[in-house]
Amino acid sequence: MSSFFGQSNTKIHYRLIGKGECIVLIHGYLETLEIWNDFAEELSKSYRVLTFDMPGHGMSDELSECNSVEGMATIANEILMHLEISKAVIVGHSMGGYIALAFAELFPSSTAGLCLFHSTPFADGEQKKSNRMNEIELILKGEKKLIVEDALPLRFANMNLMKFRSEVNRAKAIALDISDGGVVATLKAMVSRPDRNHVFQKANFPTMMIFGMRDNHISLDVASDLANRHKNTRTVYLNNSGHMGFIEEKGQALVAIKSFLECVFS
To answer: b/e per residue, 165-192, with b = 16+ CB within 10 A?
Structure first.
């Protein structure tokens, strides 16, 4: 079911498929819910799967010039309440992981489990903040295409670029269709978000992190540090993935997610 949820005179596009316990898949930067289509379809054979377009992305209206990860987490919670779903496992890809963490912190009673998929709980460092502000300047100059052409191939492991050429091109097409205002608003949200390592430390629900061994954005050193820091969190490494494991190693990623869901809902 694809539908719209009204919020403050704007409409947020969401899709709900499948039956059973609920899992929410939150897309990342320069993505829309479409990026999850194949993965969500597989999960929907056993679970109810909710995806939604962030404000200014896909078919969702823009909310403001600056979104916040807390605001987007609140939207996810309001959609769940609208659908009368009391608890869900929250999975966030990349930037979606920042929103998933905010959701778990703000709405712990609605969080059955938390999974970061190619994401970290760290706040942006100064260099990362500077990079994001540079991207904002490029977008305001009408140069979003340059960002997309540079950024999207880096999300796949270098060795996978030819194998997943059509998926890279599809990801580019999705990104180019996002409004400039939507992209700028999410960049500002990422710059302003806090560190949320404490969410893992205080969680009273199961948690998991999934990393790609060949990720151009999250080094193995960072992944290992997080695994050591949060020993009660299940950590999965995808051997042949970059930053898009649900595409690059869909089968292995599904096994990891389904195993986690079985643990959560057992």
So the answer is: eebbebbbebbeebbebbbbbbbbbbbe
- Say whether pTM exceeds 0.85: yes
Burial class, 29, CB count within 10 angstroms (exposed 0-12 / middle 13-18 / buried 19+): buried
> Which residues share a beta bridge with 25?
51, 91
Nearest to 103 by CA among 114, 117, 118: 114
pLDDT tens digits, residue range 56-103? 999 999 987 668 999 999 999 999 999 999 999 999 999 999 999 999
- Measured in whole angstroms, how far is the alpha carbon of residue 130 from the centre of its chain? 22
pLDDT tens-digit map of 226-235? 999 999 999 9
Is domain 2-265 given the CATH code 3.30.1490.110 in the classification?
no
Q: How far is CA 158 from CA 59, 105, 128, 150, 167, in A?
A: 31, 35, 22, 13, 14
Instruction: Count CA atoms closer than 13 A to 250's CA, side-chain side.
Output: 12
- Give the contacts of 74 (CB within 8 A, at least 6 positions apart): 106
User: Residue 142 CB: number of other CB atoms within 10 A?
Assistant: 9
Amino acid identity, residue 159? M
* Helical spans, DSSP H, in the chain: 37-43, 69-82, 95-106, 126-140, 144-154, 165-176, 180-192, 197-202, 220-229, 245-248, 250-265
- Rounded CA-CA distance 240/15 in Å is 30
Share in percent of the chain as helix, strand, coil (round to 5): 50, 20, 35
Residue 54 sits at the vertex; the CA angle it makes with 48 and 59, to the nearest 5 degrees, is 90
Q: Where are the chain's structural domains?
A: 2-265
CA 86, chain centre distance (Å): 21
Question: Could you tell me the two tokens for 221?
Answer: 């050193």
